[in-house]
Amino acid sequence: MIILASSSPRRKELLGLLSLSFEVIPSHADETIEESLPPGEIVEELSFRKAREVLGAHPKITEGIVIGSDTIVVLNERKLGKPSSPEEAEQMLHALQGGPHYVYSGIACLDAASGKEAVSHKRTRVYMKELSAAQIRRYVATGEPMDKAGAYAIQGRGAALVDRIEGDYFNVVGMSVSLLADMLGEFGIEIP
Ligand SMILES: Cc1cn([C@H]2C[C@H](O)[C@@H](COP(=O)(O)OP(=O)(O)OP(=O)(O)O)O2)c(=O)[nH]c1=O
């Protein structure tokens, strides 16, 4: 059995690409973290917390693999999560437009029966086009940025804002399917 500890519809779709049967249980883990930590450590720690919280809150889960994941956008030293208001979304997009940034996504897998744990992350470079204030305002007005790290969705209308990427596309959307497949392999789960 596989349990995805996530409320993200994107991650559900991404795990679905592997044609494995799984259940979704949203995680309510505390995501407060020291922002000065390296971004790879942040997404790995938060991925772990999400998976552990679901396992801890559901004592009936005695076997199977619990998967947690977390995504942040990093611009120079600045870490951008999900915007808390349309104004913050506009500010994030103003900062990101016209240049490159990194998207980090972590994945944690916990084996409920054995207690075995694994965690890893990937980094993708995203180059955003130059955007006018009017373009940014129109995009924020669609509502799409509000539940997305860095205030854009590359898989949606946000695709029009991106010039190109270097690295794994799915890592930008929320979880590297390729990395996940390798990690599940370490837990004895073969992809059909
Ligand atoms: C950069 C980017 C992020 N995102 C999304 C992926 C994540 O859902 C979200 C980052 O927030 P997260 O805190 O990583 O995840 P979440 O709160 O949506 O879901 P959960 O913690 O329950 O697993 O941003 C996109 O959908 N497209 C993008 O291009």
From TrEMBL:
Active site annotated at which positions? D70
Tell me the InterPro entries matching this sequence: ITPase-like_fam (IPR029001), Maf-like (IPR003697)
Organism expressing this protein natively: Marinicrinis sediminis
Could you say which EC number(s) this protein's record lists? Answer: 3.6.1.9
Job of this protein: Nucleoside triphosphate pyrophosphatase that hydrolyzes dTTP and UTP. May have a dual role in cell division arrest and in preventing the incorporation of modified nucleotides into cellular nucleic acids.
What does the similarity note say?
A: Belongs to the Maf family. YhdE subfamily.
Q: Name one Pfam family in it.
A: Maf
Q: Which HAMAP family match?
A: Maf (MF_00528)
Q: Where is this site: Important for substrate specificity?
A: R10, T71, Q155
* Cofactors, names only: a divalent metal cation
What UniProt keywords are attached to this protein's entry? Cytoplasm, Hydrolase, Nucleotide metabolism
Q: What is this protein called?
A: dTTP/UTP pyrophosphatase
What would you give as a GO molecular function for this chain, any one? hydrolase activity
Where does the signal peptide begin and end? none
What subcellular compartments does it reside in? Cytoplasm
As its record notes, the protein acts as a catalyst of: UTP + H2O = UMP + diphosphate + H(+); dTTP + H2O = dTMP + diphosphate + H(+)
Q: Does the keyword Ribosomal protein apply?
A: no
Q: Which domain of life is it from?
A: Bacteria
